[in-house]
Protein 1
Amino acid sequence: MSAEVTGRKIGDVILDVKNITLRFGGVKALTDISFDVREHEVRAIIGPNGAGKSSMLNCINGVYAPQEGAITLRGQTFAHMNSRQVAELGVARTFQNLALFKGMSVIDNIMSGRNLRMKTNILQQAFRNPWFGAAEKEETEHREFVEKIIDFLEIQAWRKTPVGRLPYGLQKRVDLGRALAMEPQVLLLDEPMAGMNVEEKQDMSRFILDVNDEYGTTIVLIEHDMGVVMDISDRVVVLDYGKKIGDGTPLEVRSNPEVISAYLGAGH
């Protein structure tokens, strides 16, 4: 469902990727990639395995430093910024391979996403007595925020369960919750539905659209399921062998001969 169907109001450009080239030794992972992301939209990045999709996300959130090009985020242009700086500008990310704390509970995993928002220091958090009342008050406020996310994602029944004991689909939901705990303006989702069954994909699609609608969060996602991409995206950029071969609405991309040949026609 694109913006034309949902009535979603798309704003101005919040993220502008310009001429990004990324090399690993003599191998080019990305070659002169440019695209933009508008506020409140769901922007998909698709392409066959090895197309450079995750590398592109890694450039946006500061994991990789491209050799050429620049990224403008909320009006601030940078050739490279570290992950913490990007997070402080309002960008959160989930990962294709879950990076959760498997022995910790659902609520504690999601709480870890609040670290950037905490003003009291570690010493104040460690000693909770009248002298350190600010830390206790702050933690209570953060836990209340996290409980709202748990309700939103419908995982109340597992809030105290160690994440490692949860089914894969629920772990993916916890990963989304931890990213939401950062209160991002831009949320990067790296294959949020990988390994899920049909019902789990439907649930995750619903949550992504709800995040976009209720939180007003701009979404950039990598996804292999073309049905999902066509259903929930406003615009799609297509990569193949590190080059951009398509960019437009789902309908435009789906009818692009180069995309059909390189991606859709390849059985992906």
Note: The chain has eleven helices and ten strands.
Protein 2
Amino acid sequence: MFDTASLMMTLPELVLTAGGLILMMVAAYAGDGAARLVGWLSVATLALAGWTLCPAWATSGEAFDGLYRADAFGAFAKVLIYVAAAVSIIVAPRFFETGRAIRAEYPILILFASAGMGLMVSAGDMLTLYVGLELNSLAAYVLASFMRQDGRSAEAGLKYFVLGALASGILLYGVSLLYGFTGSTSYAGISTALSDGLSHGELFGLVFVLTGLAFKISAVPFHMWTPDVYEGAPTPVTAFFASAPKVAAMGLTVRVAMEAMGGAVHEWQQIVIFVALASILFGAVAAIGQTNIKRLLAYSSINNVGFALIGLAAGTREGVAAVMSYLAIYVVMTLGSFLCVLQMRDKDGNPVEDIASLAGLSQTRKGLAAAFAIFMFSLAGIPPLMGFWAKFLVFDAAVAAGMTGLAAFGIAMSVVGAFYYLKIIKTIYFDEPAAGYAPAASRLESALIAVSAAVIVIGYFFNPLLDSVSAAAAAALH
């Protein structure tokens, strides 16, 4: 039977899929000369997909007999995903032109990855979850190795593929265990079965599923791929990996924990608390000795995942709302940071990634230096920037749930983590000047950096809106 209502609920994914297929034909016939046109059409497709989310803010519904859920939670996550994807497309042409690697397929891959991420955050069944996850992952493997002439990029793609396949196998094994012991793959069916008491088989399935998801959010101890992939992948791709897939994976983890595993909160809380503590500690300590800015930001992303998981560990509606607010602020901080990294170019226009090359930046590129400082201070959680508010929300949710010790540990580790962010600021403003960077060559990149920095500085004026939207997203899961 032709289910029109279900198709309308999945309209964002249909728009992205149709747009990707049409633009793939354009790229095939017009070649790489149409790369910029395909890029801007891809951004328009993402905007159209975002516009189709409007009905989901007001109502919730299930499509295809519960396989897909259209609600405010999914809509919130998809807006963040589409914004991050659009920025990653917009800034790519100038980067790839330097290495003569610009290809029209790049924005199309991001469209298909975005469609997969949309399925991830709206999945109501383990089968939908897996299809969305693999659609995103298959595009991501190609994106990581997009610069075929660069050995580091090829290595990043291979590592990501091998470890991603391992994580997918672990996740699929966990899903099979849950299906075998609960008799259902739907989140609602699994939750009902788990609420009657957790058997050993169900517990093993729960652990394997959470292990597979921990890899996707690059949480310790399943983080090993992150620094190498972030360093080796092209910088626009790294910016994409650090933002959109991170939101999708965290959104997926929150939905699975609250909807599918809601009947076993005590069991998964212990796992989430351990992963959160380990990620915060490892991310804070391992970043201290890094000399490559992209590797440092990779450890920063691991650290930030740990903080976001504190909100999930609370297991409450307030905790989920805190996670969603954290992700929104994190996306702005991360995109802003990588936009600044894209501006790191030597006199010949070649990308530079050494932290030492930032020395004396405050004397040659005052605007870029100020933006770098804003993003680093915000990632460190220094008030009054929005990064402080993000951490405050998850700590407040943990304290309200009676997890004061967890919040205290997070606060203490925030001090440790602030060291390597402040080290970058110290290099920019106080070290002996290094060779200067090339002048800013893209007004669009500069404008995006300025907008991101402005949001981080004056974002408190938008707190009522962010709080209300996050609360609505959290309410959709309860």
Note: Strands lie at 61-63, 68-70.
Protein 3
Amino acid sequence: MLTFINSEKLTKENVAEKLSGQDGIIICPGFGQRGIEGKIIAAHYTRTHDIPTFGICLGMQMMVIEFARNVLGYEDANSREMDEKTEHNVIDIMEEQKNITNMGGTMRLGAYECVLKQKSRVVDIYKQEHIQERHRHRYEFNNEYQKEYERAGMACVGKNPESDLVEIVEIPGLKWYIGTQFHPEYQSTVLNPHPLFVNFVKTAIENKTKA
């Protein structure tokens, strides 16, 4: 059964009540400020309670921000989209993207190559190292923080080979905690579902069975 949880109404006080019974959580994409703190609260709860979690685009970025705030210790960590003055801009528009104008803004649109890290969960899911996925976003993972994330347990397991931009993060120590900067739903159909969705649902079912 699917349950819609409005992140605008999610707080530290009610998150356990809202999420504790879920077998898996998708932190959805979006734009702007709406509901982002709720998404961060959700990411923290699912990470610390090992609930299978799939973050897509903005959802992935909120997973990255949550990790910076609560694991790396940067309380003000944020995206430049949300807070232009943050000293820890773990999500930002990278320099090489600032000069790209497409449809009136600096947005990465369309299909881009991605190379997956060997021995990662995602390479096991895709069963290949080179993939191509579709994007629709402006802001990116800030590579200046990559080594800190890697040391603390969040692995950057998918990168664009030309720009070196991070496309996928995962926490190997958890059941299923993966965020993608791209939109896998753009290449997923009823007859040919995306491998990430298939594996996520399979893990959520296993999580339910074990519970």
Note: The chain has seven helices and ten strands.
